[in-house]
Structure formats: structure tokens, C-alpha cells
Specification:
By secondary structure, this protein is mostly helical. The chain has two domains: 102 residues, Arc Repressor Mutant, subunit A (Orthogonal Bundle); 72 residues, Alpha-Beta Plaits, CATH 3.30.70. The protein is 59% helix and 8% strand. The chain has a three-stranded antiparallel β-sheet. The radius of gyration is 22 Å and the shape is elongated.
Length: 227
């Protein structure tokens, strides 16, 4: 009996890759998607395996690598949320991508809120941001905070982070000493760029301190980050 050689799995054929490309074009570049997001994610996986990398697939399909990664992120959803996607109860790739950035145990509660119409894609984005900056809160409390803050004006401060100051927790603590933690709605860090969202009271406190110290708000923010 001839024993089959063990080795690396075979790469999908070009024909298989071309089929995945055709399916992606039909289900990402046109209005009305025949396939579910799970099936589209599968096509992304097949295409990437066939052509070796995401960039090559991006060029063949005609959409960005970032968008392909968003479709592929559906694979990171919890089994219960994948079931909702399979049943076509969740169709938005943006919502699915944001859900995938939450811990698996918290995704279902947010997904049910979307399906019931209690929260929308903007709310899901805010929930993900708040979850990152407030890790000790329960997901139910985070959802309620986002829902109740919809009509509250939010002020955004964006800035470059000094070297070694790239932790969300340390940025939040630094701003909280000046504007008060309860006045900060979220903190986000992406590479060297930090973003703090605060309510009108937080903005007023920031302005008051800047005026008292004879600084612009930008100078005060730089000072806060160096504290």
C-alpha cells in the first residue's frame, strides 16, 4: 500500500481562485448581495489562499485590502452571532466587523440590539470604543450609556502621543485629572494618534484650565500627556 506523502496543504487552483474573485465582485461591488457575509468571508479566504496574499486578491476584485479584511472578520464572530449572519439577520459588513472587535461573550447582546432596531451601526462603533476605554463596565451598561448619550454633544480632541504614552488607560487617567473621568465618553489609541471624546462639561473644564494657565487647548493637551 502506497502511503501518501505528508506535506503542506495544496494551494487552491487558479480556477478556484477565479471563482472566488467572481463571487466577490458580484457580492461586494453591486447593490444586493446574494451570498451571506459568512459565504463572502469564505470567498475571501479561498481567494487569498489561491493568490498568495490579500493585496493580490484586492487587485483582482477591485476593492481595498481593508474592505477585504472587514469581510474576513466575520470569521471571528462567536458561533451564536455567526448563526444570525447565516440567517441573514445581520447583513451590514460594518456592523459585523465592529462586532468582531468585541469579546465573543459580548457580541450576542449587541447583535440582538441591532436586530431589534434598538441600536444602529453608529451605536455599535461607539460601543466598541467605550468597551476599549472602560474595560471594567459590563456590556449591558456600555450599551445603555451609548444609547443615552446619543443626543449629548461630544467634543473630540485628537493628538499625537509622546513616545511611551500609547496605553488607553494612561491617556484616560491623564485627561481625567484635568476634566474628570465622568466627563470622558471614550479614549482610543491607533498607533501614534490618540483620540479623546468628552462631553460639554469636559470641554469647559479643559478650556478653563487652559485660560488659567495662559495656554492654548493644544498646548494644554501636550502638557497633560507629559504629566
Amino acid at each position: 500500500m502506497t502511503r501518501r506523502k505528508q506535506g503542506k496543504p495544496e494551494r487552491p487552483s487558479k480556477e478556484t481562485g477565479d471563482t472566488a474573485v467572481a463571487a466577490l465582485i458580484a457580492n461586494t461591488l453591486r447593490v444586493g448581495r446574494r451570498l451571506s457575509l459568512l459565504e463572502v468571508a469564505r470567498c475571501v479566504d479561498v481567494g487569498r489562499n489561491a493568490f498568495g496574499r490579500t493585496q493580490a486578491l484586492s487587485e483582482k476584485v477591485g476593492i481595498s485590502t481593508e474592505m477585504l479584511r472587514e469581510f474576513a472578520s466575520v470569521n471571528k464572530l462567536s458561533p451564536s452571532v455567526k448563526k444570525l449572519v447565516r440567517e441573514r439577520k445581520i447583513e451590514s459588513v460594518d456592523v459585523a466587523y465592529r462586532l468582531s472587535r468585541l469579546p465573543p461573550r459580548e457580541q450576542l447582546a449587541v447583535a440582538r440590539g441591532v436586530i431589534a432596531g434598538r441600536i444602529d451601526s453608529n451605536d455599535v462603533r461607539a460601543i466598541v470604543s467605550l468597551r476599549r476605554s472602560a474595560p471594567d463596565l459590563g456590556i449591558g451598561e456600555i450599551i445603555e450609556r451609548v444609547k443615552t448619550s446619543r443626543n449629548i454633544k461630544v467634543y473630540v480632541a485628537e493628538f499625537l502621543l509622546p513616545s511611551g504614552k500609547g496605553r488607553v488607560e494612561s491617556v484616560r487617567e491623564a485627561f481625567a485629572r484635568v476634566v474628570g473621568d465622568k466627563n470622558i465618553s471614550s479614549v482610543e489609541v491607533k498607533g501614534p494618534v490618540g483620540t479623546v471624546r468628552m462631553n460639554s462639561e469636559g470641554k469647559r473644564r479643559l478650556q478653563d484650565v487652559a485660560t488659567r494657565e495662559g495656554l492654548t487647548k493644544r498646548q494644554l493637551i501636550d502638557h497633560i500627556l507629559d504629566m
